[in-house]
Design goal:
Length: 129
């Protein structure tokens, strides 16, 4: 990725620039972002953090989710895609003495493995999804 600079507008005495970064399509898909999503920025320890702003639609999805209209897989994906990227690396459960991160859970559940089913049961019993 490269930081790009463009002239936004000019006045008599000043040039106003805007900056952009092109994100890889795979990353945008993995985040569950769509064109037109509002993005928040935060500066933390010299790093720029991007996250999607919660929308009214996201609040409605949570309300629907509580009503139980989504499958286990859909519930998991809604929770997973709402997490900040760094939080996905954190452990969420221990199964067979193995710490399971959100990323590992995502991979196992998506591939419909036996471990993925065990992770799903654990997340449901803990009330996480």
């Amino acid at each position: 990725m490269k930081l790009q600079q463009q002239v936004s507008r000019k006045t008599k005495n000043k040039v106003y620039n805007k900056w952009s970064i092109t994100l890889p399509s795979e990353l945008v898909r993995e985040l569950g972002w769509k064109a037109g999503d509002d993005v928040e920025t935060k500066l933390k320890e010299g790093k720029l953090l991007l996250s999607r702003k919660p929308t009214e639609g996201a609040k409605k999805v949570k309300e629907i989710k509580v009503k139980g209209t989504f499958s286990f897989f859909e519930k998991f994906m809604l929770v997973y895609y709402s997490l900040p990227m760094q939080e996905r690396k954190m452990p969420i459960a221990v199964i067979n003495k193995q710490a399971i991160t959100w990323e590992m859970a995502h991979r196992e559940i998506k591939q419909k493995t036996v471990l993925g089913k065990d992770i799903g049961k654990k997340l449901i019993s803990l009330g996480i999804i």
